[in-house]
Design brief:
The structure is a homodimer. By secondary structure, the first copy, chain A, is an all-alpha fold. Chain A has helices at about 1-25, 35-45, 45-55, 55-80, 85-105, 105-110, 130-145, 155-175, 195-214. In chain A, α5 (about 85-105) packs across α6 (about 105-110) and α5 runs parallel beside α8 (about 155-175). The radius of gyration of chain A is 21 Å and the shape is globular. At the A-B interface, α7, α8 and α9 of A face α7, α8 and α9 of B. Chain A binds a DNA duplex through α1 and α3.
Chain lengths: ~210, ~210
DNA sequence: TATACTAATGAACAATGTTCAACTCTTGAT
DNA sequence: ATCAAGAGTTGAACATTGTTCATTAGTATA
């Protein structure tokens, strides 16, 4: 009775193909720009087949979100596995987070900004890698506190504060709100021409202030 | 020739009415939920008349964004005009920012998260009140540095870091990403049932860490 | 070979932003 | 009072896009 299994495999393969196509199209245009018809055409199926696999566009992008979390987690893990000074590890993990967001703004939106694919977080499976990303941060924070390069406050609050800050930076950057720094819009603020570097620099400054305080 | 002026006034009044209606509808449903037809009906005009006043939906919501910034700035200014201890002032301005975002999540999205109404920030008029909000923060930060409750780093970086953190908190909250803290999703993290208060508490903690370091 | 089941198809539907030719009303001149 | 010109209004029609579903095609089993 291997027929059942083969059909399951084929079904799964098609599902994966659709997710891959959706991810790619999404990466270069965002949610609105991806049309179900385009996905179908790229997969060389009719649109109905997409709906055979995914309840609707939102459900499809839950799967894309999950894939995006996998990629992001991989990217983060690749930067932390070394034997580093804890403070450098904190710098590294933050910088990796920021650079991933800047390199893949649409995926970043899907993971942390859009609400389409979030309605009902009753589905924690899809957030598995997202949670692991947070645990990666938590681990480094705890390590920093033990070694004394971060003050010994509530580690959850510290992780939350650091995550919020880098997320705030990335999301403001992605939505072009940092453009207020780019021209002569603010008095006493010389135009900043490289916001990406300012983000990294400011993050490190904050880490250092915390560490000096510890 | 007062006729020209009267017509201009009427035109301006209609424009304002449309913006008010759009703001109200937007406040209770977000961008997608607002239909041009609904706005027209609420204003008791046909849809064509809306397009006579605003090039398209995006342009209309540029105006709504501007109105939202006005409200937010007012709200912020109302909390800072008192003669306060600089650190309390910093707490107050941050808390006001957070509370406005929580009270008006859709307007917050429009101001700081959506990109529809942002394409082309070649239009700094609409950001006037938004810029003033930033200046409010800058002023308090400078004051804190003078008095010695914030370390004397680059004030632009400090303002940017603080803004990013509270924006990160509010936007993660609004998009329900803080739900990861609400259940048993993270090991070693007791479920947090009141994220709003955690945001305020964490912000104050960070302010205090900075101030102790100064 | 016939039957039953699964999967694929794409025309059709609904919702919504946008356009535009027709229409109405006001204004100013005759 | 009448009329021409112009500004403002109307809503039917169009284009796009997510979604559905009756029909068709393909495959497996008796």
């Amino acid at each position: 009775m291997g027929i059942q299994e083969r059909k399951m495999r084929e079904r799964e393969a098609l599902r994966r193909q659709i997710i891959a196509i959706a991810t790619e199209q999404f990466s270069t245009g965002g949610y609105e720009a991806v049309k179900m018809r385009d996905i179908a055409e790229a997969a060389e199926y009719s649109v109905g087949t997409i709906y055979n696999q995914f309840e609707d566009k939102n459900t499809l992008f839950l799967a894309v979100q999950e894939a995006a979390f996998e990629r992001a987690l991989e990217h983060m893990q690749a930067t932390v596995n070394g034997e580093m000074d804890p403070l450098d590890e904190l710098h590294a993990i933050g910088e990796a987070y920021i650079r991933f967001g800047l390199a893949h703004p649409h995926l970043y939106r899907l993971m942390f900004m859009l609400d389409s694919p979030m309605q009902a977080l009753d589905r924690p499976e899809g957030w598995s890698c997202g949670l692991q990303m947070h645990q990666l941060l938590s681990a480094v924070v705890n390590e920093c506190m033990e070694v004394g390069v971060l003050p010994q406050v509530d580690p959850v609050q510290m992780s939350f504060a650091l995550w919020s800050m880098v997320h705030g930076m990335v999301s403001l950057r992605i939505t072009e709100r940092l453009d207020i720094y780019s021209g002569e819009h603010l008095p006493d603020v010389p135009p900043i021409h490289n916001p990406d570097e300012m983000m990294i620099k400011t993050m490190r400054m904050v880490h250092h202030l915390f560490s000096d305080q510890a």
